[in-house]
């Protein structure tokens, strides 16, 4: 039986030593007795979510089993993209490359490509930018492991508690890697290299994508239910934020404004900023947010730690997401299980085909944002 421990709903959510409210310790969805001294509250996850606009679930995923494969895939992807960008051997251009750790290699990739690697890594966001360019034939940034994370049964269980068992995944997954100043030095070094004639194939070089700071630095207040074509049914978006590394108060924590989802589309209520709640996050935890919840993230103030998170969106099946030109799929359906997409390779191929098509023909909504 599922056991859920509700942390005290403290008057001041920050009373809880950095553990926010509403915070649900869900060390396992299917087992584990409550370990906290507080009695389980009588309010359901769904009620809590509807009221506050967010929910923190602890220990939903297993770092080794669920997160390590995707971390390994992205580590290789970064190397492959550096290789893709460079005309010659990596070691000739960047002799110490093999000694760099993941955030330094990632910073090198960002610097070499002057940020435009985000066009490739995160097309759902950057496809809107004026400077967006498709990276032709580059190693896929929609790998099978990302599909596995998006359709992870435990994440879907959590989403199901909120929107029911007919769940579709709109094409809105994002990657955010928040680097420390020391990593950015590697990015600057690589950016200087990128000016050397003949060093790069320059697959996507151009002005940095408009959203680069959003993905690498502090993220300003925003909501995720951003309109697409305007045909969305809306109002039921769930964003699931998945930290791959620790997000501590110093290391780019997510910050939410509780209950701000209740106000519909509106400007950020500056006068309520002091009610913001800083969320810590460990690998394995997930944070669910309502589409209209205002959230942001603080910058990375550490010496050399980095914070990496994915976030993805979920909608009840049948709701429009305003982005018919990118692949949407049914992740869970109790009514029609045969509709579920189960093949990660097919998902990757859908993305390749959609992005190639857009590149060749049109960008229905792009080039509208600076
Ligand atoms: O990971 C973060 O800092 C937040 C990112 C975010 O809010 C988004 O991608 O919509
Ligand atoms: Fe967001």
Q: What oligomeric arrangement do these chains adopt?
A: single chain
Q: How much helical structure, as a percent, in the residues?
A: 25-40%
Q: Helices and strands: which structural class?
A: alpha+beta
Bound molecules: 2-oxoglutaric acid, fe (ii) ion
Counted by DSSP, the helix tally is: 11
Q: What's the count of strands?
A: 13
Q: What composes the largest sheet?
A: 9 strands, mixed
Q: What is the CATH C-level name?
A: Mainly Beta
Using only C-alpha atoms, the radius of gyration works out to: 20 Å
Tell me the CATH topology: Jelly Rolls
What is the global morphology? globular
- The poorly predicted ranges are 1-21, 25-39, 366-370
CATH homologous superfamily classification: q2cbj1_9rhob like domain
* Euclidean distance between termini CA atoms: 50 Å
Number of domains: 1
Order of helices and strands: EEHEHHHHHHHEEHHEEEEEEEEH
Query: Whole-number average pLDDT?
Result: 84
The appropriate CATH architecture is: Sandwich
Please indicate the percent range of residues in DSSP E strands (runs of 2 or more): 5-15%
Describe this structure in words.
This protein is α+β, with helices and mostly antiparallel strands. It has one domain: q2cbj1_9rhob like domain (Jelly Rolls, Sandwich). 29% of the residues lie in helices and 15% in strands. The protein contains eleven helices and 13 strands. The protein has helices spanning 45-52, 63-85, 90-93, 102-112, 117-121, 123-126, 144-150, 153-163, 181-193, 212-216, 344-360; strands spanning 5-6, 23-25, 54-57, 167-169, 174-178, 219-222, 238-243, 254-256, 277-279, 286-290, 295-297, 307-316, 329-332. Strands 1, 2, 3, 4, 5, 7, 10, 12 and 13 form a nine-stranded mixed sheet that branches. The chain has a four-stranded antiparallel sheet with strand order 6-11-8-9. The longest helix has 23 residues, at 63-85. The site of fe (ii) ion has 3 residues, from loops.
């Amino acid at each position: 039986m599922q056991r859920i421990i509700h942390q005290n709903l403290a008057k001041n959510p920050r009373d809880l030593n950095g553990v926010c409210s509403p915070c649900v310790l869900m060390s396992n969805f299917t087992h584990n007795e409550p370990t906290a001294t507080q009695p389980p509250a009588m309010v359901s996850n769904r009620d809590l979510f509807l009221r506050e606009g967010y929910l923190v679930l602890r220990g939903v995923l297993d770092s080794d089993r669920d997160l390590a494969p995707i971390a390994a895939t992205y580590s290789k992807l970064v190397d492959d993209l550096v290789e893709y960008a460079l005309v010659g051997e990596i070691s000739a251009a960047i002799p110490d490359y093999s000694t760099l750790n993941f955030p330094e290699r990632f910073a090198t990739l960002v610097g070499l490509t002057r940020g435009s690697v985000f066009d490739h890594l995160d097309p759902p966001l950057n496809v809107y930018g004026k400077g967006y360019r498709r990276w032709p034939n580059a190693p896929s940034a929609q790998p099978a492991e990302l599909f596995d994370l998006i359709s992870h049964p435990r994440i879907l269980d959590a989403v199901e508690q909120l929107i029911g068992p007919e769940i579709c995944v709109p094409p809105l997954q994002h990657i955010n890697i928040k680097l420390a100043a020391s990593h950015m030095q590697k990015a600057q070094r690589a950016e200087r290299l990128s000016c050397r004639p003949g060093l790069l194939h320059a697959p996507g070089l151009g002005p940095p994508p408009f959203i680069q700071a959003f993905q690498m630095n502090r993220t300003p207040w925003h909501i995720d239910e951003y309109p697409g074509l305007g045909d969305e049914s809306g109002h039921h978006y769930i964003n699931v934020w998945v930290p791959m590394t620790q997000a501590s108060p110093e290391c780019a924590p997510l910050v939410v404004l509780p209950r701000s989802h209740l106000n519909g589309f509106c400007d950020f209520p500056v006068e309520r900023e002091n009610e913001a709640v800083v969320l810590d996050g460990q690998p394995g935890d997930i944070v669910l947010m309502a589409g209209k919840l205002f959230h942001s993230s603080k910058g990375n103030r550490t010496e050399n730690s980095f914070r990496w998170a994915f976030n993805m969106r979920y909608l009840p099946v049948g709701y429009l997401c305003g982005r018919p030109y990118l692949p949407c799929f049914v992740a869970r359906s109790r009514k029609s299980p045969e509709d579920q997409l189960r093949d990660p390779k097919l998902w990757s191929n859908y993305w390749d085909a959609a992005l190639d098509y857009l590149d060749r023909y049109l960008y229905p909504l792009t080039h509208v944002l600076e």
